[in-house]
Amino acid sequence: MTTAHDLPQAPAGADDALAAELAIEQAHVDRVYAELDKASQRARLVAVEGLARGRTERTGEARDEELTGLFERDALVFHAARRQHALDTQYEGLVFGRLDLDHPVAGRDSEALEREVRYIGRLGVRDDDYEPLVMDWRAPAAAPFYRATPVEPMGVLRRRVLRCRGPVVIGAEDDLMVPEAPDGLVILGDGALMAALTRTRGARMRDIVATIQAHQDEAIRAPGRGVTEITGGPGTGKTVVALHRAAYLLYADRRRYESGGILVVGPSAAYTAYIERVLPSLGEDSVALRALGDIVDAMSTDRHDTPAAAAVKGSLRMRELMARVARGLPDGVPTELRTFVAGYAVRLDSTVLQRIRAHVLRQHPHNLGVEAARQTLAETALRLVGHPDRDDFLGRFSDHIEVDAFLSAWWPQLDPREVLLWLTDRQRLDACAAGLLGPAEVDAVHASWMEALETGTWSIADVALVDELAVRLGPEQEQPVEERGFFEIENLDELLEGATGGSFRPEEVEPAYSTTPSDPRDRLLVGRIGRVADYAHVLVDEAQDLSPMQWRMLGRRGRRASWTVVGDAAQSAWPDPVESLVARAEAWGGQEHRLFHMGTNYRNAREIFDYAAAVVRTEVPDADIPEAVRETGIPPREARLGERPLESIEAEAQRLLTEVDGSVAIITPRRYAAALASLDGSAQGRLRVLDPLSTKGLEWDATLVVDPDEIVRESPGGIRTLYVVLTRAAHRMTVLQTRRRGDDH
């Protein structure tokens, strides 16, 4: 435990209070980093010792002892490497907070010396006497750093947030928790939270571990079981609170969540790239980050469907459509079996084969039903021919080469992606969609799957459909490797020499295929769909946008999981919220549910958010509108696109780059996206170009919103998507439009 007595004291009568306080904090941070270096050295020594344990040579009766030594070696090396990684990743901004509390300290008589000091950081660090120099932010003793308020100070006199650059303390901000500062307690700055809010944004999300507010901390430290839902309008910190919750759960119940894994799901690849820094910076790297287009192994896409196609593909009606297509047959399968077995003619026609297929599929997924199909074929053939020796006939049938060939063609292993592509056949699609989809809906999904064939890219909505088919078909089974005789192996070199005209050199043989297929259809089928992973916790951000089919996909990965779900109904792009709520409840499985609401907008300047709120209220009058807490005095700028829209866009983007020091985003509808693509990543990486749907969960210092009317027309969520776009800027926003607000269309 650290007390005020243990810390260096500020120089008496110093004119520069800030410099004096920073010197005190720097002395403690230096001590922490010295201990960190010693801990790093110890981790390296443990790794060396572990490797040494595996080098002892033992034979014969000492084999068990040798295996024990190898196990000890692996365990020591693993834990040492893990500790070393934790120390390395926490080097930046390790110590970020300090609490001064008025708890009495045993053995101290002076009131001024009875204050306890706790330093808060990204991980715990102790000195040689095992006294804490820094407390892990997730530890119960660190909770007052986040939960103390002037109304309920929890014994805290002063909360200080330290800003560090590496091991150097460069600033501090204080919050006083008592009506008057006790003697000797210096108060710095205007408050840590507001200082953090005015800083510029970067290409990746910053953690808020140093500025978590009390209501946010309640959600972070909520019980791990059941479903924790975090709601609130734009800029309320829902996403980053949820990510800090994931880190807290790993700390509080590491065995459960690390062994089972945590899946974090976001709306886009841009989103996952944006947040990927947060969890490692909090001490956790055992979390899987996935965009909705990356949930299924061997599939990765960021292509959006048209609103019409997305609405159909996400509907629960697709369950039955997928069931129908999964019961179908590939083109060209044999329609009858004709062969001789044990001297008897066997003929099974299409009616019998259909009956056998239906029987097997009632008990087995297709890909797991091959042996059941073989057995049922054999039993059926036996009844038809009346062979007197049942075992002899069944054995001959099972080993028959023509039966093997027939089964390979009649009951092939099916890739669920290939089955989905069967629906590019309009006749088959019409048959499967009969009674489920209307003509316009069939047109929309057929056009989307034809686009997939032409471009070699799936849509995000297709991923959930492939997952549905994968469950119905079962995992693909490895085909048995054909055994080769000794003679074949002995003469391999001779055969290759004859084929190549000389000695065989493997490096001279060109591969039969490229790792990146050129044919669009082949690109859709790269890799293999694996088994569904099952996680201990599933965190879903932008949950209001998930379709019912996507909820079913996530539900399969969280069958025994607890959940953290983040969303805002006013930002929803899904047209049927009732159907989505039904699917969501099914995915959760009736678990205990707790709700936390975030009502303060920390991201947007008030001027920007008021503009956005006025837009969304025109169509969503009951939208959850948070209160923005920061003002800049600069309202959003409105300008016209004019006759040369690209020149207008580039000019306004340059204006914003001069007005802010940080990041700027051009958010554009599809019609300008290709022409503006060259600007993406320019201005030393400060300028980004994005489509409206890819902005979900992201933020920039300034945004340039291009043609809001067109964004509304082309987006699934209409005005709700525009609301998202208008709430991405922290400090400046320019809106380029073909008409001014209030003008007639």
Automatic annotation (TrEMBL):
SUPFAM superfamilies per record: P-loop containing nucleoside triphosphate hydrolases
Protein name: UvrD-helicase domain-containing protein
Keyword Transmembrane applies: no
GO biological process entries: recombinational repair
GO molecular function, one term: hydrolase activity
GO CC annotations on file: cytosol
Matching InterPro entries: DNA_helicase_UvrD/REP, P-loop_NTPase, UvrD-like_ATP-bd
Pfam family, one: UvrD-helicase
Keyword annotations: ATP-binding, Helicase, Hydrolase, Nucleotide-binding
PROSITE patterns recorded: UVRD_HELICASE_ATP_BIND
Domain of life assignment: Bacteria
